[in-house]
Write a structure and sequence with these properties.
Beta Polymerase, domain 2; 3 domains; eight-stranded mixed sheet; three-stranded antiparallel sheet; 12 helices; 11 strands; 13% strand
Length: 354
């Protein structure tokens, strides 16, 4: 326990020569959906809405009112996984559902509306219907009953537990209730965490959990690598105290409650390893070495850094500076100033490096 505390509190010795912020920004671009995939997802979404509208137009026990995109796609924290897939959550809303109709029945009716929309039969999940566009993406369809005259929050249909209060719009508002200056980095950091989870292929906390941790614990920094490292440490501290992570809006449930003891243990081990390598990367004197450490956790899509011996580079710059100040430096035909004795000898000037 004492060793753990000393490790947690160890001072970070930032080395600007291995600054990987630009690499992280490039990595973020690699996680983005392609324009062609976005176009296909938009078409799929509209097709689903059309199918559901047509299916329910003559059913008197239901009053379909429309759809609403929710989750990571809505919040702009969606990522393209390593195998080039992604997912979208498309909420389906009914203003009226006959009192005799169960939540599971409503889900079955929505399933029937979309069951032939792709060549792959949709799957019935406990809280949604999943429409699969094989090798490309899938769309999860949660079903809601929301009559503003009767309900303070939407009621989500579940297959085994009836109707449950759930309010994705409230979560979206909570998430976006951040400083507009902070949101861009917040979204990038969440994407990095999700990409880490994707790369490790293990059962990690959900993207929802990562989003809550990031909003609650992230300290904005001019460098993404440092901001991520500091957040990882705070997540470790948080789960060391308690694994309970409450949804900040309705239904205020614990979003980590389904993780098993083994999954929690595996995540803690992965987190410790990531923190160690992140610290070593930030303190590294070589950007290539630092990028390799980040790749251990974020995968090969993370760019490689420059292979430079920063100690030698710093020493060479110091030597050149001394040569310039003593009138013994030379300028090469390329325009570079060196400590070599070839080229055109420089006149002494004292403002070099100032």
């Amino acid at each position: 326990m004492i060793i753990h505390q000393l490790t947690k509190n160890e001072h970070l010795k930032i080395n600007d020569m291995a600054n990987c912020n630009k690499l992280f920004l490039d990595y973020n671009n690699k996680l983005k959906l392609t324009s062609s995939k976005i176009k296909r997802m938009k078409t799929a979404r509209e097709n689903i809405k059309t199918k559901i509208t047509e299916y329910f137009k003559d059913k008197s026990k239901y009053s379909f009112t429309g759809t609403w995109i929710q989750g990571s796609y809505k919040m702009d924290t969606i990522i393209r996984t390593d195998d080039d897939t992604c997912d979208m959550d498309l909420g389906v809303y009914f203003k009226m559902v006959d009192s005799e109709v169960t939540a599971a029945t409503v889900m079955d009716q929505v399933f029937k509306a979309v069951e032939d929309i792709t060549t792959t039969t949709p799957s019935k999940k406990s809280k949604c219907i999943r429409v699969v566009y094989k090798g490309d993406f899938h769309i999860d369809i949660p079903v809601y009953h929301y009559n503003t005259n009767e309900h303070s929050h939407p009621r989500l249909a579940t297959r085994y537990n009836g109707w449950e209060e759930s309010d994705p719009k409230d979560f979206y508002d909570w998430f976006n209730n951040q400083s507009s200056d902070d949101l861009p980095q917040l979204k990038r950091i969440i994407k990095y965490l999700k990409a880490w989870s994707d790369n490790k292929k293990g059962k990690f906390p959900s993207g929802l959990a990562f989003s809550i941790w990031a909003v609650s614990l992230l300290n904005i920094n001019e460098r993404d690598d440092i901001a991520l490292y500091e957040l990882l440490k705070k997540i470790r501290d948080d789960i060391s105290y308690s694994w309970s992570l409450k949804m900040p809006v309705t239904p205020f449930d614990d979003v980590c409650k389904k993780l098993t003891y083994e999954q929690k243990s595996n995540f803690k081990d992965a987190l410790e390893a990531f923190i160690k390598d992140a610290k070593d990367a930030i303190e590294s004197k070589n950007q290539l070495a630092a990028s390799t450490l980040w790749q251990n956790h974020l995968g090969n899509r993370f760019p490689e850094g420059a292979d430079e011996d920063t100690d030698a580079k710093e020493a060479d710059l110091k030597t050149i500076s001394e040569k310039v100040l003593s009138s013994t430096a030379y300028t090469q035909s390329s325009g570079a100033i060196t400590s070599q004795t070839t080229g055109v000898k420089n006149k002494r000037h004292t403002s070099y490096g100032g």
